[in-house]
Amino acid sequence: MDYGKYKYEVQKRKNEAKKNQKVVNIKELKIRPAIDTHDYEVKIKQAKKFLAQGDKVKFTMRFKGREMSANDLGSEVLNRIIEDLDLVGKVDSAPKLEGRQMSMIISPEK
What we know:
This protein is of the alpha+beta class.
């Protein structure tokens, strides 16, 4: 077999595999534990839009100062987000605390 022909076929297989793959983007939404109702609704609306497009959504909750002692407020907000997005997405990684921020990832339903 000709080496040039072999290289051509390998390249063609690579291109075909690349054509069939799906790129998944992660969109990040940053929130605070003392988020107001309207701000919360705007973030939920953005998350629903991102999930409808097929992107994953990462929620990051930042704690400042004394908010670190009230981690339960942050987890309550993230649990409320999980309940509100239950129909359009599922939780990939549960809320976990990493230093001064708590994060979770939600992926779209199939």
